[in-house]
Amino acid sequence: MSYASLNWVKSPSGFESSPGGPGFPRMTLVPNFNGRTSLSWYRHIPRDQSHCSGLEELSTMRLPVRIAVGCGALLCVVHSAVGVAHADEPASSSSSTTSVAPSSVERSSPSAEPESEAPQPTDEHAPPASEEVETPSVVPTTPPPSEPSEGESSVPAPPSSSEESSEAPSSSTTDTETCSKGESGRPATEKWSPTEDPKDTVTPGKMRSDCEKIPGNGKFSKADADRAEVMEARVEKRQMTARVAAGCQVYWPAPYEVCGVIRDKYNSLGGPNSFLKFPISNEITNPGNTGKRSEFMVGPIYWSSAHGAHPVVNSFMTKWGSKGWESGFLGYPKTDEIANPDGQGRRQEFVGGAIYWHPTQNPQAASIGGAIRTKWNAVGAEGGPMGYPTSDEVAVTKYNGRYNNFFNGTVTWSQQTGARQLFGSIRDKWAQAGREDGPFGYPKTDEQVSPDNVGHYVYFEGNGAIYWHPVVGAWPVPTKMLALWQTVQYELGSLGYPVAEPHNASASGQGFLRQKFQNGVALVTDSGKGLVASKPQ
């Protein structure tokens, strides 16, 4: 293991390093600005011949650098806060070892004075004066465009000194880590992967977009892809300089940053390889500063401090948007999309309710919440007799009530009656009569099973009840008729179930209500007196 110290000094081509030991390669530093700049840099060279590549972060003056070493030789670009250094050529083996204290580094402008002097390197990082620095292997300066032969390593050319510049790199270096223009027809990889050694300035013919086809089905242009690669490099450099956990990430070829918890969720789903595909926006603050979101090709990921980050896509996104997004009654998502126990439908939970979807019962999705959902859950939710919701919650005028329709029923709600469910034929009969605005009004009981365990019935707040039998169907029984029917024990008595609608009639100047049952006819006078039950006629 060997160490060496170099001092960057001004040269016509930029900044060069004075060799710190025999065989140590001369280095060239291409600055990001004009003016005086010097930097002491330390190299740690592993001598593991079985692994000819490696990556190590070192730092001087609190400025991180990144190097790749292989078989004792410097292979690729050394990033620093003042510029980009690259191997130029090996120094003469007769060079003497020098040790120069690092000078201050300008961070603001070329004319700015240095703020403070960087600390001296400690003894544990500097070699003893008598120790001879081991000679690194030679880095070829003009390797062929194909893969380097064993023992050789390609050295990337430095990017230009500013974002706007597109000057060619110095002729003393050749970048063979990138493909030539002739390779631009190479198909994109089946799975997305980050850009290896992204360029921090656009370099014609050397960008990733010059090497492989741009994914995204035409969503992103070459300019987008090149901008994304530059962003990848700068995000990486920014995070190295900040010495904190990565906060944002760029996913080539999309020129957008995905950050924080949203990035973590996106990566956990598979990033661009997931159903969301590529990002199409930077992080956005939602109205009212209540949370954040990032948009992707298939849908957004929304984040709130109370419920975390969750994607909302397809029919769920469409339905949620129609209800006002996070500002509507549903609020922020609480879960990702969930597969229901039946193996067919899906749902997503929100703060104020849920959205349900089924491929045949409700392919458009429907929202449900509050007391209506509580009632539906009590009878088995989508696995119960009502099936999936087929409408959103609907507001009605009478009593400021609400209802949801389901595949096999309805749940209504009003402050006077609470939430009540109706199924099948009873629900259909009630709807034909005008629902809550008809003569029955709101149901005041849930649908009940008759004492004979055959029929069903529901009582209403307006006028009477509706009874159903699997043989005779569903028929209404008005309140006055119910009083008579009760005297003969309802459906368990001599009359049995109703089999027809009630109707008004008169005889001998007396008006009455007449209704047919399985085993007879019931008559009720207008005054409610003189109730008569008779055999079928």
Portion in strands = 25-35%
* DSSP E strands, number: 31
Assembly type: single chain
Rg estimate, integer Å: 39 Å
Q: What form results from the Cα inertia axes?
A: rod-shaped
Mean pLDDT: 74
SS class: alpha+beta
> Into which percent range does the helicity of residues fall?
10-25%
Low-confidence runs: 1-178, 180-185
**What does the main sheet amount to?**
6 strands, antiparallel
- Please list the strands of the largest sheet in the order they lie side by side: 4-1-2-3-9-8
Distance between the termini: 113 Å
In DSSP terms, counting alpha (H) and pi (I) runs of 4 or more, how many helices? Answer: 6
Molecular structure report:
- By secondary structure, the protein is an alpha+beta fold.
- Among the domains are: 1-138, no CATH class; 184-311, no CATH class; 478-537.
- Helices cover 12% and strands 29% of the residues.
- It has 6 helices and 31 strands.
- It has helices at residues 222-242, 260-269, 314-322, 370-378, 424-432, 479-487, and strands at residues 2-11, 14-18, 25-31, 40-45, 55-60, 63-70, 73-74, 78-80, 83-90, 248-251, 254-259, 284-285, 292-295, 300-304, 308-311, 338-339, 346-350, 353-358, 362-368, 394-395, 402-406, 409-414, 418-423, 448-449, 456-459, 465-469, 473-477, 503-507, 510-517, 520-525, 532-534.
- A 6-stranded antiparallel sheet has the order 4-1-2-3-9-8, with no helix packed on it. A 4-stranded antiparallel sheet has the order 12-13-14-15, covered by helices on one side.
- Strand 17 and strand 18 (353-358) form a beta hairpin.
- The longest helix is centred in the middle third of the chain and has 21 residues, at 222-242.
- It is rod-shaped.
- Mean pLDDT is 74; it is low at 1-178 and 180-185.
